[in-house]
């Protein structure tokens, strides 16, 4: 369960007016530049106060597989609360804010309370609150405006590939009709690591365009972990509470 929580929420698993996705003709445009594609992608940014998602999750790694349900509550740019349930019983919770990450799980009666640096080191990917929120909302993991990309067309999708000198290779595939993310890949070839996030389908809810689910595949050398999240219920701008309390008997864990 501890590994499930770590991978699901930290890696590699808001009243305001609604803004609809930008819609253009469903034909990829060869004349667009990478900068213009990125600009159009961010015109789709979701403008909300709160978001509630009820989801079903399947998890599989070389040692185990598990099916759970999850309740995800988001107060945009401020707080994310995820409750993991098995047979209706809450087995774990994660509370994520811009400053820190907390989670606890019942099986080992343990909890974590710390910042993003330890988790980033553990997973090999620089993490922060915005990246976790972007993952759940189906938006680009990193701020695409902070890097330069080569542009190509592949399977009638816009493909952006990073051209920086770092050891991390990023590939982002955007839908040709609305510039939303279809797939994102983050690879570290030297360390034989690769994280792939796919949004197989999209759904409209209350004038907002969200993923219908998320398919995550994390590869490290010969080991593969897959997480599939299906969004079953979605609602925006309801009054939400974010209860989180660690039982006194639980033991704190530290990540070096």
Report on the structure:
The protein has helices at 2-10, 34-42, 116-123, 129-137, and strands at 50-61, 64-75, 79-86, 89-96, 101-105, 110-114, 149-154, 157-162, 169-175, 181-188, 193-198, 202-205, 208-211, 213-220, 223-236, 251-252. The protein is mainly beta and 256 residues long. The strands form 2 sheets. It has a 14-stranded mixed β-sheet with strand order 7-8-9-10-11-14-15-1-2-3-4-5-6-16, with helices on one face. The radius of gyration is 18 Å and the shape is globular. Mean pLDDT is 83; it is low at 1-26.
Distance from first to last alpha carbon: 19 Å
Global outline? globular
Q: Find the count of extended strands (DSSP E, 2+ residues).
A: 16
Total helical elements: 4
Helix content: 10-25%
The pLDDT mean sits at 83
Low-confidence stretches: 1-26
Order of helices and strands: HHEEEEEEHHEEEEEEEEEE
Strand count, sense and closure of the main sheet? 14 strands, mixed
Percent range for β-strand residues? 35-45%
Strand order of the largest sheet: 7-8-9-10-11-14-15-1-2-3-4-5-6-16
Class derived from helix and strand content:
mainly beta
Q: What value does the Rg take, in angstroms?
A: 18 Å
Descriptors:
256 residues; mainly beta; 14-stranded mixed beta sheet; two-stranded antiparallel ribbon; 45% strand
Question: What's the arrangement of secondary structure elements?
Answer:
Elements (H helix, E strand, L loop, with lengths): L1 H9 L23 H9 L7 E12 L2 E12 L3 E8 L2 E8 L4 E5 L4 E5 L1 H8 L5 H9 L11 E6 L2 E6 L6 E7 L5 E8 L4 E6 L3 E4 L2 E4 L1 E8 L2 E14 L14 E2 L4
Parallel strand pairs: 6-16
Antiparallel strand pairs: 1-2, 1-15, 2-3, 3-4, 4-5, 5-6, 7-8, 8-9, 9-10, 10-11, 11-14, 12-13, 14-15
